[in-house]
Amino acid sequence: MEKYFLDYDWTVMAPELIILAAAALLSVIDLLLKEGGNRRLLGWISLAAVIGAGVVAAQQLGDPAYEILSDTYRVDDFARVFKLILLAGTGLILLGSFREMDREGKEARGEYIYLLLAALLGGMMLTSSADLITLFVGLELLSLASYILAGIRRKRTDSNEAAWKYVVMGGVSSAFILYGMSFVYGLTGTTNLYTAQQRLFEAYNSGYEPFVLLSLFLMLLGFAFKAASAPFHMWAPDVYQGAATPVTSFLAVVSKAAAFSLILRVLLGTYLFLLQAGPWQELVAPALLVIAAASMVIGNTAALRQTRTKRMMAYSSVAHAGYMLVPLAAVAGAMLFESTIYYLIAYLFMTLGAFTVLMVVERETGNEHLASFAGLSRRSPLAAAAMTVFLVSLAGIPITAGFFGKFYILIHAVTAREFWIAAVMLVTTVVSYFYYFGVIRMMYFRPPSDGKKVPIPAGAAVVILISLAGTLLLGFLPQWTLDFLGQMDWMSTLSPVRDTLGQ
Amino acid sequence: MMPVTSYLALGAILFSVGLYGVLTKRNAVVVLFCVELMLNAANINLVAFSKYGLYSNQTGQVFTLFTITIAAAEAAVGVAILFALYRNQNTVKVDRYNSLNG
Fold first, then answer.
1. pLDDT tens by residue, chain A, 503 residues
2. Most Cβ neighbours (<10 Å): which of A108, A112, A490, B88?
3. Is residue A373 assigned to a domain?
4. Which parts pass through the membrane (chain B) (predicted)?
């Protein structure tokens, strides 16, 4: 039975529709408000929309997978969990940056908010598309909004320059992804990810082996760009440094989570047949492992000699991208989805928390040099204590979220018998202690340049507390989250939905 | 499969020229052009495949319409960012955009 526009159950798309409506509404309201007026209202509406979308997405958890719009849009547990991560990240960033954006981008406050929502919408489309066209449109919506966000402080040279580097590098990576996609289409005649898997398998067996691999590696190159993993990480330090801090945290958390959902969806949805066919073990897994190892080594060693905290965090996020690639590279391990998603959640809380403290400190001292953290324990004991927890968690020390995140990834890698990557991970983690503890040393053992207190705005304080609670909760009771993730229907991610027609 | 190879070769050449330009050109506007060349190389592939692919059908042309639109949006954003940068720096030489470093 052919299904038409209104035959679909549109409620599955409710989270996206809420965000879309909010972004459209806010752009109109922003035009109607008088210039230079108070834009606080827009912030609250956007926050309400994000929370509403999150509630709807959370209620749908556990429902069977459903595909709408001729199987191009797919809502399964994989997509819902990723959507919740993206929504949580964006909500916390919005809440934490209310005061910051008043000061940073007076003339662009409205744009900041609805571009953030547009980028979020792109990320959400990305997580639940089952079609190359939808995937590409979602990816570009996320990317284009991020380019503008990176340059939103348009009077400042460093911000412009960051946006420029981002738009050129991002454009090149999009071109690589699209070029790879064109070969997938050429070999399969379809843009559906799951149909493409069957036909790629046939094409692979009938002599088009090089083209199948070419398409995969072209896309992989672009994905590595988007996830900021080495050796395609060159843009990350510059863009993270030049963009406003809330935007940087958006790129580090939401953008990266969306990129990982893209990598997982395409590799597992379309190219998993290579596991049986052979080249996965010979080519794909080694390539992913090399990217992961290179990210860990380059990220952690380059971060050692940074004197600007945002640049340091950029290299640290490169290293974390490396950790998160390990489960996919060692696909045969015991807990592929659980360990990746656990790490993403842990990464969300600790990175957002660290960036929020960084934002507060930067706001007070006017720059983000490591030295501006000197004596923070006396200027703001709460911020210093929270930052210590976040950094300890990023370093992966026990009883924090980061420790269990790394622990599960290690278990996964060891059950897949990929011992050398586990060793690289352990060694680079130890290296990372040096720069994370450098910040802690600065906060506790260096005298402050002046004795002024660092005031924490209410929104930022709430974000710091939520991130602190998340980081500690995931560290003390990892089993809760793991059980919760274990209940999800991950395996449906790997196969198409059969029963959408004629139900 | 014979006719498609010439189109694929054209696509590959355009893609390589674009990539070379992005990596070596010093004029920011030319860099943007080169990014567009890379995106259009993929479009040529898609249209060629929709006529001569293993399973030829119309989907490729529809895909091309989407990517052309997106490439236009990307160019608009790129040029807008370049304008802002030019106002602050008064140059379009890419190697002068070097204020960010570690």
1. 566 666 777 788 889 999 999 999 999 988 888 776 677 788 888 999 999 999 998 888 877 777 777 778 888 888 899 999 999 999 999 998 877 766 655 667 788 888 999 999 999 999 988 899 999 999 999 999 999 999 888 888 888 999 999 999 999 999 999 999 999 999 998 888 888 888 888 888 888 888 889 999 999 999 999 999 888 888 999 999 988 889 999 999 999 999 999 999 998 888 888 888 778 888 888 899 999 999 999 999 999 988 888 999 999 999 999 999 998 888 877 788 888 999 999 999 999 999 999 988 888 887 888 888 888 888 888 889 999 999 999 998 888 888 998 998 998 888 888 888 999 999 999 999 999 998 898 888 888 877 778 888 888 899 999 999 999 988 888 888 888 888 887 777 777 776 444 33
2. A112
3. yes
4. 6-23, 30-50, 62-86
Taking each helix axis from N to C terminus, what angle separates A193-205 and A157-188, rounded to the nearest 10 degrees? 60
pTM exceeds 0.90 for this model: yes
**CATH annotation of B4-94:** 1.10.287.3510
Q: Quote the ipTM score.
A: 0.95
Nearest to A477 by CA among A342, A275, A322: A342
Q: Is A233 an 8 Å CB contact of chain B?
A: no
- DSSP states of A210-275: HHHHHHHHHHHHHHHHHTT-TTS-THHHHHHHHS-HHHHHHIIIIIHHHHHHHHHHHHHHHSTHHH
Cβ <8 Å between A133 and B88: no
**Distance of residue A72 Cα from the nearest chain B Cα, in angstroms:** 13
Nearest-Cα distance to chain B for A123, in Å, is 16
First to last CA, chain A: 9
> Hey, are the CB atoms on B88 and A203 less than 8 Å from each other?
no
Q: Would you call A158 and B53 a contact, using CB atoms and an 8 Å cutoff?
A: no
Mark yes or no for CB contact A189/B59 under 8 Å: yes
B29/A contact by beta carbon, under 8 A? no
With beta carbons under 8 A apart, name residues in chain A contacting B81.
147-148, 151, 160, 163-164, 167
CA distance A21 to A431: 46
Q: Distance between CA A168 and CA A161 in Å, rounded? A: 11
By C-alpha distance, the chain B residue nearest A203 is: B54
For residue A116, what are the domain limits?
A: 10-494
Q: Does residue B21 belong to the interface with chain A, where contact is any CB pair within 8 Å?
A: no
Instruction: Check B63 against A151: CB less than 8 A apart.
Output: no
Domain edges within chain B? 4-94
Find chain A residues with C-beta within 8 A of B66's C-beta: 133, 136-137
Is residue A210 included in any domain, yes or no? yes
How many domains is chain A partitioned into structurally?
1
**Own/partner pairs for A423-427, CB < 8 Å, 24+ apart?**
A424/A293, A424/A296, A424/A297, A425/A296, A425/A323, A425/A326
